[in-house]
Amino acid sequence: MVTALEAAFSVFPGSPLFRQRLLTLNPVTSLKLQFSPPSLSQSSIHFSPLLTCNGSGLSSFPPRFSVQDMALEADADAGETSEENVKRKLYVANLPWSLSVVDIKKLFGECGTVKDVEIIKQKDGRSKGFAFVTMASGQEAQDVVDKFDSHEVSGRIIRVDFARRFKRPSPNPPPPVPLAHKLYVSNLAWKARSNHLRELFSENFNPISSRVVFENASSRSAGYGFVSFATREEAEAALSALDGKELMGRPLRLKFSERNAIESSNEKEGEDGSSQVQPES
Question: What region holds the RRM domain (predicted)?
Answer without folding.
Answer: 88-165, 181-259
